[in-house]
Write a structure and sequence with these properties.
The complex is a heterodimer.
Chain A (H helix, E strand, L loop, with lengths): L6 H9 L12 H51 L8 H8 L3 H32 L2 H12 L6 H12 L4 H9 L11 H26 L2 H9 L4 H12 L1 H16 L3 H6 L7 H12 L2 H26 L1 H4 L9
Chain B lengths: L1 H10 L16 H8 L1 H34 L5 H13 L2 H14 L6 H25 L3 H9 L4 H12 L1 H17 L2 H5 L8 H8 L6 H23 L3 H5 L12
Classes of the chains: A mainly alpha, B mainly alpha.
């Protein structure tokens, strides 16, 4: 900012020591200063309001470029940009390899979701009804694999399901000599994926269960319901939003799964994610990979649509049934 | 948890092929892995990438969380959904898309490309943790600061940030892990000098595995236990992982 000589000093310098000119509000210098003060005030007030938004602006740009742009590119490449035709889609539907892939993905994902929910619900129930410390330990036990790489987790299952692994030994122990190998089969993938997805299922169910006040149990029994009836007709229905949310997460995750089916599965259990990865790695055919990507995107979108139609926004942002804007 | 224990037991075996129960107990595999550049180079690559991603994601994510919680704009909850989008859609989609972006920019196989790409999946974790922390901040503190004359940025930096530092640290930790454990993005952006540990592990996991791989898994398990302990001591474990509190109402897809 330019150094401003105070009006008093300036006029004193010009006109000699005996004269003092008191600056009035009509002098040009003052109105300039006034305007600046006004502008500065407006800026400060604008910043007060929008500072928090400005701080998040880089994030918005980052996510648009990092999330939305990639998705857009997938669609663009599937349509064979820059030519823009449906050649890729025609090739895909006519190829005999594609439909089994899609079918595998759909049925394996469904089974995995069911198994994960069946395994996860009891675990979440115990966790919800347990005392503080125990709940924490249980939570840590199920979250701990979450902090490990999927590669490592799937690999450990590979070690177990291996023909030389402990599953074989366990079967021998029970007396069965010829053991069907689980590795390389859909069953192996299902076992592995269910375990990998358990945290996704347990935590929403746990959250929903803890939202069901314990008093409901007492209320139910005071009205004459036994413990199993209370569970079936009170707790279970109230926790369904959690179950739905967990199932949604599990299904969508399974749709796009790659690492677990790749390590644990075989030709009869190849899933969509593996198809995409193969196209990217071996043939570098971005067009085909993107086309399969669009299919995956559509499957995901349809799943979410179905979930929101069936369960409403309660499922998507589970726990909230209010409508805050 | 069970499979993890089995892996560690296998890694202690003496035979060149992984068997269970293991024959002979030795820690030799752990030692050989630690001194073998075939393993240490990918591990170092992973570590460098993870640290860079952690820094980037934390810096960007904290701003995103502040926007989600404090901004007066109307599209706030929509933006919040955008910030969390990578958590909801299959990672294969994001990875494929990012691979397309990076290859088009000729950044495939470079550390910069990898860090920027992995940042996308790391940011949601930071945003979640910081948002939870912001919920517990008494906004009277910020008002007090402003009544004492602090400007908005000063308040954010000197008052809000210190109050949420636990959430920031937790978010940074999850961001680190997101990058460290990521295999798919790293797989697609793989390059001759840019192989991360999970990608390398993926290539090594065939039928006849040597306990060395189990030893690597063992190391990683220890790292995860350490991370788990950190998360628990920060006291942000369960609340951060259950997405019960969301700002601006239901921010679905």
């Amino acid at each position: 900012m330019k150094e401003r000589i105070p009006p008093i000093a300036r006029s004193a310098a010009n006109e000699g020591p005996g004269t003092l000119e008191v600056p009035g509000p009509s002098t040009r210098l003052d109105s300039n200063v006034g305007l600046l003060v006004l502008l500065k005030g407006a800026t400060v007030r604008w910043l007060d309001r929008w500072a928090s938004t400005l701080v998040g602006a880089p994030a918005v740009v980052y996510m648009i470029l990092g999330c939305l742009l990639p998705l857009g590119l997938i669609v663009a490449f599937s349509l064979n940009a820059p030519h823009f035709n449906v050649a890729n889609y025609r090739d895909l539907t006519s190829s005999g390899l594609y439909l089994p892939l899609l079918w595998n993905t759909l049925w394996i994902s469904s089974v995995v979701t069911v198994v994960a929910v069946l395994l996860g619900y009891p675990y979440a129930y115990i966790m919800a009804r347990a005392r503080g410390k125990v709940a924490l330990v249980l939570g840590a036990a199920v979250a701990f694999p979450f902090l490990t790489s999927t590669v490592v987790r799937s690999f450990t299952w590979e070690l177990i399901l291996n023909p030389q692994g402990i599953v074989t030994d366990l079967f021998h122990l029970v007396g069965i000599s010829t053991v069907p190998t689980l590795l390389g089969t859909p069953a192996g993938v299902i076992i592995g994926l269910s375990q990998v997805e358990l945290p996704f299922v347990v935590f929403p169910i746990y959250a929903a269960l803890t939202a069901v006040h314990r008093d409901y149990d007492s209320a139910a029994s005071s009205l004459g319901a036994g413990p199993s009836k209370a569970f079936l007709f009170v707790t279970l229905p109230l926790s369904m939003t959690g179950v739905a949310a967990g199932a949604l997460l599990a299904f969508v995750y399974a749709l796009g799964a790659y690492i677990t089916p790749q390590l644990l599965g075989g030709p009869s259990s190849t899933m969509l994610g593996q198809g995409i990865a193969t196209e990217v790695q071996t043939s570098l055919s971005w067009g085909v990979a993107s086309t399969m990507g669009v299919v995956l995107l559509l499957a995901t979108a349809v799943t979410f649509l179905a979930a929101s139609l069936l369960g409403g926004r309660r499922v998507l942002g589970f726990g909230h049934s209010d409508s805050r804007p | 948890m069970g499979p993890m224990a089995v892996t560690i037991i296998i890694s202690l075996g003496r035979t060149p092929v992984a068997v269970f129960p293991p024959v002979g107990l030795t820690l030799a595999w752990y030692a050989s892995v630690a001194s073998n550049p075939t393993w240490t180079v990918p591990a170092l690559t992973s570590a460098i990438a993870a640290v860079l991603v952690m820094s980037l994601a934390t810096a960007v994510g904290v701003g995103a969380a502040l926007l989600s919680m404090r901004s007066p704009m109307r599209g706030r909850s929509l933006l919040f959904g955008l910030f969390l989008l990578p958590l909801i859609i299959p990672s294969m989609l994001i990875s494929l898309g990012l691979a397309l972006v990076m290859t088009s920019l000729r950044l495939s196989g470079t550390m910069q490309g990898l860090v920027v790409a992995q940042g996308v999946i790391a940011i949601p974790y930071v945003v979640l943790n910081v948002v939870v922390a912001l919920r517990n901040v008494d906004s009277n503190m910020e008002r007090a600061a402003q009544s004492l004359g602090a400007g908005p940025f000063k308040t954010l930096f000197w008052v809000t940030l210190p109050l949420i530092r636990r959430g920031i640290v937790a978010g940074a930790l999850f961001a680190f892990l997101a990058s460290w454990d990521d295999a798919i993005i790293a797989l697609f952006l793989n390059g001759p000098s840019l192989t991360t540990l999970p990608v390398f592990l993926l290539g090594q996991a065939t039928d006849n595995v040597s306990p060395a791989i189990a030893a690597v898994a063992g190391y990683l398990a220890v790292l995860s236990i350490f991370a788990c302990g950190l998360v628990l001591t920060l006291g942000m474990g369960l609340p951060a992982l259950s997405r019960r509190s969301e700002p601006g109402g239901t921010a679905g897809v």
